[in-house]
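Retry 2 of 3 after timeout on previous attempt. Resubmitting structure tokens to design endpoint.
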């Protein structure tokens, strides 16, 4: 297959590029490097089956040659990133998604949208299944991301219904692993970087809010299964084992052997109380379920951060800590706790 991956130089995108190259596919990676990095794809830029296009997919997207599939992952994904890039986040969810859908339509290609558990907002249904419509603020600080993804889902379904595009939607729950940025403000990367730097681990709220953490290799297997299928979804992809944020902090201290303290700060607005995927559909339709335990996955990310010690210590001043897919939403009550990167 020849596959276009938008956002291919990002955390998840680079792992998807790698997985497809490994099985012999040809990959075109389109990325504007706004939150991604060339170092993520450095290991395969010399591969003749890999092409990198530096492009903002919200402004236009032309890919020479035939494509069999388009995986649309381009979007800032962590709160510090989408708060820094609010209009860009809305643009890539809307215009960027439409540009990617048009490319899929022109090529009669399979189109897979990387949507998010954030479309469920602060859920009133637990665990979250795909029938649940969500509890999302259209004007809150997180809305630039949540609503962009909800619009992207609507657009993908409209292209499926009215233009016959072979669309598949995956709703990704918190995923972590190597190639995360130490300062990206997501809870797992923040805790590990804080622990390795000997800084306090910052919990926002009482730490009893829950999250479910999926290791990147598992998640990528799920996306590849969705690319290969003709299911439209949406299909949840995530690890159904639920942990409190405090439990995560303790696991990180245990695995790193760090003596860092745990600090509690005020809970941000719109912070979901519980987050856990119902993955029955993924099991039934894709034969997919996670295999890597949270402990094992954390060990891999700790090893990766240890091998990038300079980057981790340089991030020390800009880690704000976080509890969900990304990190804390802007909190009017406590702006000083955010320390968002400029
Ligand atoms: N990591 C998670 O836990 C998670 C959870 C749910 C959904 N997702 C979704 O998965 C996708 C990838 O997330 P990630 O964690 O790898 O984030 P990331 O920030 O590492 O990757 C996003 C990539 O998209 C690129 N990008 C952003 N805007 C672009 C534009 N206009 N044109 C071209 N490229 C652009 C960035 O440079 C970056 O390389 C996102 O769509 C995100 O919403 C991720």
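Retry 2 succeeded. Sequence:
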């Amino acid at each position: 297959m020849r596959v276009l991956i938008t956002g291919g130089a990002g955390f998840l995108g680079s792992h998807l590029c790698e997985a497809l190259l490994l099985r012999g596919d040809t990959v075109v990676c389109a990325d504007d490097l706004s939150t991604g990095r060339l170092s993520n794809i450095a290991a395969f830029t010399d591969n003749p089956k890999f092409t990198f296009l530096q492009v903002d997919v919200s402004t236009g997207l032309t890919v020479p040659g035939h494509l069999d599939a388009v995986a649309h992952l381009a979007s800032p994904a962590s709160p510090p990133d989408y708060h820094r890039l609010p209009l860009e986040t809305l643009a890539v969810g809307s215009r960027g998604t439409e540009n990617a859908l048009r490319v899929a339509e022109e090529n009669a290609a399979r189109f897979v949208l990387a949507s998010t558990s954030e479309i469920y907002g602060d859920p009133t249904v637990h665990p979250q299944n795909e029938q649940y419509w969500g509890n999302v603020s259209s004007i809150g600080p997180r809305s630039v991301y949540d609503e962009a993804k909800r619009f992207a889902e609507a657009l993908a379904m409209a292209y499926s219904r009215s233009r016959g595009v072979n669309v598949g939607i995956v709703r990704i729950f918190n995923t972590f692993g190597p190639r995360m940025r130490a300062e990206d403000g997501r809870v797992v990367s923040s805790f590990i970087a804080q622990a390795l730097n000997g800084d306090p681990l910052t919990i926002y709220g009482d730490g009893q809010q829950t999250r479910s953490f999926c290791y990147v290799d598992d998640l990528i297997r799920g996306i590849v299964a969705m690319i290969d299928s003709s299911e439209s979804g949406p299909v949840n992809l995530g690890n159904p084992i639920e942990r409190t944020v405090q439990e995560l902090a303790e696991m990180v201290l245990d695995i790193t052997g760090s003596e860092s303290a745990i600090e509690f700060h005020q809970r941000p607005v719109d912070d979901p109380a519980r987050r856990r995927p119902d993955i029955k559909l993924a099991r039934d339709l894709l034969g997919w379920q996670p295999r890597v335990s949270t402990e094992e996955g954390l060990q891999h990310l700790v090893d990766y951060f240890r091998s990038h010690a300079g980057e981790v210590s340089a991030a020390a001043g800009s880690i704000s800590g976080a509890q969900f897919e990304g990190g804390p939403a802007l909190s009017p009550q406590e702006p000083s706790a955010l320390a968002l990167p400029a």
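Attempt log closed. The longest strand covers residues 110-116.
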